[in-house]
Amino acid sequence: MTSETLNTEPKSGLSAPSLSGKTFEVSRAASFEAAHHLAPKDPNHPYGKLHGHSFQVEIGVSGVVQAGEDWVADFAKLGDVLKGVTDVLDHAYLNEIEGLELPTLERICVWIADRVAVDLPRLTRVTVSRPSLSESCTLRLGPTS
Ligand SMILES: [Zn+2]
To answer: Which phi and psi (to 5°) does residue 136 adopt?
Structure first.
């Protein structure tokens, strides 16, 4: 289900308080495994050797709940959009992907944002992390609506 509207008619006969005008951020995460190497100034630095990580990506969509609606975005749509990028990145050698020749967390954030913003115009955040290393990087995007 990817509809962005909900039936807000209460089923129980109780009336739910309106969310109209409140701003929320909703987010969804997915994981991928990938290999990469970086280009450190010291050629003997371990980042320069081919190695792999378990990555997590989280996208955030922010906005005001529109009158007559009960959510900012459909989590199912966030999941579909995330799958579109993790299908490309999972078990990939990131350096071989166009735009990720130097795959730092910062560049991975931008690469993902460029692709998911097409389907999620209210995208306001992309976080890419390596949980096993307690490392993360967040790209913040301006509110678009
Ligand atoms: Zn690495």
So the answer is: -150, 160
Instruction: Give me ligand 1 centre to Cα 52, in Å.
Output: 6
How many angstroms separate the alpha carbon of residue 56 from the centre of ligand 1? 13
pTM of the predicted model, to two decimals? 0.85
Min mean pLDDT across 14-18, 32-36, 110-114 is at: 14-18
Q: Is residue 7 part of a domain?
A: no
Tokens matching residue 145: 């609506």
Tell me how far the alpha carbon of residue 122 lies from the centroid of ligand 1, in angstroms. 30
Q: Which CATH number fits the domain that encloses residue 114?
A: 3.30.479.10
* Domain span at 80: 23-140
Decide if 18 is inside a domain.
no
pLDDT value at position 21?
79
32 C-alpha to ligand 1 centroid (Å): 13
Q: How far apart are CA 75 and CA 46, in angstroms?
A: 38
Q: What is the side-by-side strand order in the sheet with 92-93?
A: 92-93, 23-36, 51-64, 123-130, 135-140
Q: 3-state SS of the chain: helix, strand, coil percent to 5? A: 25, 30, 45
